[in-house]
Amino acid sequence: MMRPRLINRYIARRLIASTALVLSVFVGLFVFFNLVTGLNHAHKAGLYTVFTMLALSLPGKISTLFPMSALVGATLGLSSLAIDGELTALRAAGVSVARIAYASLRVALVLGLVAAVVGDVIGPQAATYAREQSAQAAGLGALGATRGLWLKEGASFVNIGEVLPDLSILRLTIYDFAHGRLKRELFAASGRYRNGVWRLRGVSQTVFRARGLAVRSAPRADWTGIPPHLLSVFAVNPHALSLPDLFRYIRHLRRNHQAAAHYDLVFWYKILAPLTTGAMVILAVPFVFRHTRHGGLGFRLFLAVLLGLLFYVVNRGFGDLTLLYHWPPLVGASVPTLVLVAWSVWLLARAG
Question: Is the pLDDT of residue 19 over 80?
C-alpha cells in the first residue's frame, strides 16, 4: 500500500505544473489580444502606457481565468498520468478514485486560495494605478486620488470626492483661477448629469475680491464641466476591489440610496471562487477516468475547455438574470457553483 503523503505530493506536483502551464497559456492569449487592440491606440497613449496597462491587468486576469485553468490543468495533469500508465498503477496498488480526487482537491483549494489572494491583494492596487494611467491617457490631468480626484480643466482645478456607479458625483469642489489668483471656490454636495449639464445640489460659492469675500448659498446650480463618460475611468469597478473594501463600499452605496446588487453579486463570486476551483478539479477526476478509452489527450482537453467556457457563460448569465429579476445576489452567485459541485460528486461516485 502506497503512503498517502507520497501520493498527495506526486499528484500535487503534476497538477501544479499543468495548471501553471494552462494558466500561462490562457493569460498569454488574453494579453496578446489586448495588445493587438492597445497598439491601435499606441499613437495617443504611447507604447509605455500600453504595456503598463497590460501588466497591471495580469492579476485580475489570473483571478478570473483560474477556475477554468484549474479544470483544464487538472485534466492535462491526470491525463498525462493515465497516458503513462501511472493511474493504472495507482489503482492496482489499491488507491481508489476517491483518494485521487481527495489529493487533487487539496491542491485545488490551496491554488484557489492563492489565486484569490492575488486577485484580492495585488489586483486592487494594480487597478488603482491603472485608473490613474487611464485618466492621464484620456487627458484629464489627474493629480492623484488620496483625497478625491483632482482634475484640471482650463484655468480651473476640480476635486471630485467620489464617482458613484451611475456616474453621479459627490463632494464637488471647483477652484477658478485668473491671472494666477484664486477667484472663486464652488462646492456642491452632489451632482447628476442631465441634458448636457451637471445639476448640482447643496451649492455654496465663495468669491474672492480685493476688498473681501462674498459667500453665497443655493439649493441648486448648473455646471457645464467634465462630461461623465470621461469620469467613467474613475468609477469603482467591483472586480477590482478587495473583499473588505467591497463590503464597505456596498454599505456606502446603500447609505447613499444607490443600487448595490451588482456589487453584492461580485462579493459572493469572490467568496465562492475557491469552492468553484475545487469543483472544477473534482470534475476533472471522473472526466479523465471515464474518457481514458474514449479519445486521446487532445479530445479530453477540448472537452475540458468547452466545459470551462460553458460554466463561465452559465455562471455569469445566471448572475445577470438575478439582477434582472431582483433575486438575492447570493442565489445568483451560488446556484451554478452548487450545481457544478453536485454534478462533480455524482460523476465521481459513478467513476468510483
Answer: yes
For 342, half-sphere exposure in the C-beta direction (CA atoms, 13 angstrom radius) is 6
Cβ neighbours around 187 below 10 Å, total: 16
Q: Tell me the pTM.
A: 0.78
The Cα–Cα gap between 162 and 172 comes to 8
In 3D space, the residue among 263, 260, 234 whose CA is nearest the CA of residue 246 turns out to be 263
Radius of gyration of the chain (CA): 26
Cα 221 from Cα 125, distance rounded (Å): 36
Please say whether the beta carbons of 199 and 220 come within 8 A.
yes
Q: Name the residue type at position 199.
A: R
CA nearest to 67, candidates 277, 338, 315: 277
Residue that is written with C-alpha cell 492535462 in the block: 76
For cell 445566471, the residue is 318
> Phi then psi for 187, rounded to 5 degrees?
-120, 140
Q: Which three cell numbers stand for residue 26?
A: 490562457
Cα 201–203–209 angle (5° rounding)?
160
Could you report the per-residue pLDDT of 205-226, keeping only the tens digit for each? 999 987 788 889 999 999 988 8
* Residue pair 323/262 in contact by the 8 Å Cβ criterion: yes
**Dist. CA 85–CA 297, nearest whole Å:** 13
Contacts 24+ apart (CB under 8 A), 264-268: 264/329, 264/330, 265/319, 265/322, 265/323, 265/329, 265/332, 265/333, 266/238, 266/239, 267/238, 267/243, 267/329, 268/329, 268/330, 268/332, 268/333, 268/334
Query: What are 289-344's pLDDT values in tens digits?
Result: 765 555 577 888 888 899 999 999 999 999 999 999 999 999 999 999 999 999 98
Give the position of cell 462533480: 344
Task: Classify residue 195 by burial, with Cβ atoms within 10 Å: 0-12, 13-18, 19+.
Answer: exposed
Spatial contact of 168 and 191, defined as CB atoms under 8 Å apart: yes
